[in-house]
Amino acid sequence: MTSARFVHDLQATHSCGTLRRSHEGTTVVLMGFVQRARNLGGCVFIDLRDRHGITQVRIDPALDATLALNAQRLRAEFVVAIEGVVAHRGAKNENRRMPTGEVEVHAGRLEVLSESATPPFLIQDDSDAGEELRLRYRYLDLRRPRLSRNMALRSKVNQITRNYFY
User: Fold this and answer.
1) Ranges under pLDDT 50 in the chain
2) Nearest Cα to Cα of residue 122 among 18, 63, 14, 47
3) Is 31 found in the same domain as 109?
4) pTM of this prediction?
5) How many separate domains does the chain show?
6) Long-range contacts of 147-155 (CB under 8 A, 24+ apart)
């Protein structure tokens, strides 16, 4: 990981759901939750999530062995800040199911902002967790994308209604 100055010196430049092919070559700073981290052939791939979407981050040990070694300890729901360059994934590696599926961020710096215990269920819309478990951990369930969108819509409707009547 890097020094704590990284977080204080930089602000997030983009949200995870906004990066597209037009951003290729741009240096970005992303902050969010680790949705999933996996080690494939030495490269560490992180699906980084915020309320706007998911972006894949790639950490290559050939570029920075220390960074790749430190990234291997990342787990689901760790909160991280990542600085890197947006790159095209290549035609055969694109994920057409994701809006950000054409690009990935090649990380140059990584800071763990908060560690997390393994959650009792995955924070995603198609979770197989039962209703009782989701209600018991409601604070986690509310971070699922569909419920987050519902809360944002409710807030926007309330704001419009207040502005209309006042």
Assistant:
1) 2
2) 47
3) yes
4) 0.79
5) 2
6) 148/51, 152/51
